[in-house]
Amino acid sequence: MSAVFVHSASLMGTVVTIEVIGHGETEARRAERADSVARAIAWFQHVERCCSRFDPESELRQLSDHVGVPVAVSATTLEAVRFALALADETGGAFDPTVGHAMVARGFDTNYRTGESVTVAAAGTATYRDVELHADAMTITLHRPLHLDLGAVAKGLAIDMAARELGPLEHFAINAGGDVFVSGLNAAHDTWSIGIRHPRDEKSLLTTIRGRNIAVCTSGDYERKSPIDPRSHHILDVRTGESANEIASVSVIAPLAMVADGLATAAFVLGPREGLALLERQGVDGLVVTPALERFETKGWPK
Questions:
Q1: What domains sit in the chain, N to C, each tagged with a CATH number?
Q2: What is the distance between the alpha carbons of residues 19 and 172, in angstroms, rounded to a whole number?
């Protein structure tokens, strides 16, 4: 059994835990481990500074203040928006990152760090097609007043960047509020065990999968309820303007956490049949559970 080193921090509205297995106990090794973990944590802070819709100083919020003109953004914001727009296009707009205003209207408007409510100007009937990205110039243009919400991709991106920093340590796990990336082997020199929460019993696991060098992310209707309407949750179907209600949870296995994170939300919005078809087209594996606890799996989901 190898030694386990654990670091936890409150970041991006959740608890992020980094677990490093072994890596020796010489002074040089300890310094390398500490430095790698610090850089990994810094990525969560950086992604939040760029992609938060609550922070008025974030790049994401600054975009809403400059409608109709190209706004220079960091590579981080550019990549998060690029992937969100690609998902929107792939789902025909069922998944749409311009859902920010609707989120605020349903009471998802509180900054978890300050407790302050976000105030945003009124937005019209904008969609993802009103967001223009110029990769070479590293600019984003909003052609109509709108408010981007990158909640479905930003945490996954932060996990991926943190995993890159931890890569030289080889054996580690990152758990950001149930969204997980595992590398190498666990302390018992075996593949990692990843539990999938039961969508109707927070103390129980629906299933457990084993793996290495994979991300597993889950979107569930239990994660955040609207303070205005307890029957409503935070995963909105922009086609109806209401919470998507055909699914209770979607778990996705992918090589990258941003891919797993975004596809889990997109599949949730699409519903069981179209959601599974999306995952199959994208070459990832997923488990869909309905409110009646019916299970639907991709062909490659671990048995």
A1: 54-142 (1.10.3980.10), 191-297 (3.10.520.10)
A2: 5
